[in-house]
Amino acid sequence: RIGGGGGGGGGGSRAASSGATAAARFLTVDHKVTLASEQERLARDHGVVLGKGATRLYGLALARALGDSFLKQEGAGLTAVPDVSPAIEVNGDGGDVVVMASDGLWDVCSAQQAVAAAAAASGDSG
Prior knowledge:
Radius of gyration: 16 Å
Oligomer: single chain
Distance between the termini: 21 Å
Order of helices and strands: EEEHHEEHH
Strand content: 5-15%
Largest sheet: 3 strands, antiparallel
């Protein structure tokens, strides 16, 4: 399983996968403050209502993160409670590729581009 503090395990991490015969797909979700479900959680659980078009929560683009304990103690809505993705099957046939990266990559690269680059770097056609 791949947990999603901010997606893939902490902060702004996210994971994407592709098998030998499967198209690339994201395995996790970024918990950015622009995500409707995160805005609903912030309002429901913490009374934090973000303004229209808001992209940050106390300077952070994410609503879930490891660290930043001072913001958690202030009741700002930031949480480290993970969102755990469903388990995936890895066939082990040599065609499976998983890329776990920060939002720095995912802001400029699709899941397909990332797994294709990783497969090419490993000598796989994945």
